[in-house]
Please model this.
Amino acid sequence: MSEPCLVEEYLSAFEKGSLLNIVACSGAKIWSKYGDDTKSYPARIAYQGGMFKQAVGCFENFKNKTGIEPLWLILSAKYGFIEPDKEITNYNISFSERKDCNSVIPPVELLNQWAEKELGKYSVIFVWGGRAYAKRIEEIMAKTGNRDSKLYAPAVGLPIGKAQQALKNFRIALTNEVINAKETNLPPAEVMPVITKKAPETKILTFDAAAPMTSKYHTLKDYLENRGKDAIDLSFSEIESILGFKLPQSAFRYPAWWSNHGHTQSFSWNEAGYETTNVDLPGRRVRFSLCNK
Model:
């Protein structure tokens, strides 16, 4: 399961209009199915690779629920940074293949496109692709002095199967947040001001699905264990007092934040022997019930 904190940061950046998705092109393309290499297709349907499809599936979920498609570009080894609806023709080169090093788009042209499209203004850049693609973006950010943006690439360093699974897990985590939302109130990204956040350094983050996750919600676990009642009703403000910090906005907007599995916060009540049985977002209250009671 993807890191809940990354899901929250992704959604927060999306709401603020400061999120940019960059999707790697793929070797699998529509022409292998339908032939006719002379015919052009929009890039969003031309690429047929597994990681590419995970990204497109995520964006479709967003649009179906909110009416807004997250901002995304494709990083093509031939064309560089292109919009999803750009018509392209068939080609067979990749950043991942050494034999294609003299055929791919030159680094200086990528730098020019980055500047022309003003891609350095986004505070969160999420890469749906492997090391060869994330590395080029990281190099561009370093050369342009872009240290205000955070670069995330969960698929980096993983074999192809695990890379696709990592992106699928992340897409599912986002779906749990967005599709289950009762109220989104998400403004169009294109009309929002860009909000950037200082980061100590630009870095690529990868996630190990087997790694243990530490929880900052341990005080809630202690509270529930000490009470020991069959059912405990708490307001969101009471939970914030117990924790000593404010709940994230997703806790007020998305029922899935209070789900009983797969999130850092859920470990706190699960380990105390509780599960959430009633979440009242309008009333800002939640009931914790002892499991099997």
User: Anything to note?
Assistant: The beta strands are 19-24, 41-42, 72-76, 80-82, 87-88, 124-128, 150-152, 231-235, 274-280, 285-290. Confidence is low (pLDDT under 50) at residues 182-214. The chain is about 40% helix and 15% strand.
